[in-house]
Amino acid sequence: MKASTTIFSFGFILLLTLVLVGCGGNNYKGLKKANNGFKVQSVLYHLNDINKAFGTLRNVKNHLNALGDKNINLIIVTHSSGAFTLVDGSQDKRGRSFESTIQTLANRGVKFEICANTIRGKKIDKNKINLNATVVPSGVARVADLQQRGYSYVKP
């Protein structure tokens, strides 16, 4: 291979790498800056196991504390046994209930969503669904929808 061809190939690869790296960083650069060094975030927490609910809710609280309530748009989507987190009176296997934690997080701006398919399939009494919860047609479809809208996905 001639030296000029090698230099051209190397230069092309370097240019392509710089373009790709530059494109990848543009999404982050365009985000609004928070006061604490982070960027403003839109985050989806996916909860489908009631026995992981306390850990998930603790992660959400820590996430809010790190960013500040005004710097995050946070939605928790529940389905399967995770939906019972939003059913008043439900408890995890350790006997812990969720109502007060949900209310505290809702007061901080967290949105809670519960799957209509799960409500029907598990015969959840609609009168026991936490008042902070919004019913969505499908939990898994909502998860995909939020990801397509640019929400970061977290599954503790």
Would you write up a description of this structure?
- There is one protein chain.
- Mean pLDDT is 86; it is low at 6-10 and 14-28.
- The chain is α/β, with parallel strands linked by helices.
- The protein has helices spanning 3-29, 53-67, 99-107, 116-121, 139-148, and strands at residues 41-47, 72-78, 111-115, 133-136, 152-154.
- It has five helices and five strands.
- The chain has a five-stranded parallel β-sheet with strand order 4-3-2-1-5, with helices on both faces.
- Helix 3 (99-107) links the parallel strand 2 and strand 3.
- The radius of gyration is 21 Å and the shape is globular.
- The chain starts with a helix and ends with a strand.
Q: Please report the number of helical segments.
A: 5
- How many beta strands in the DSSP annotation? 5
Largest beta sheet: what is the strand line-up?
4-3-2-1-5
Helix content: 40-55%
Low-confidence segments, given as residue ranges, are 6-10, 14-28
Q: What separation lies between the terminal Cα atoms?
A: 52 Å
Largest sheet: 5 strands, parallel
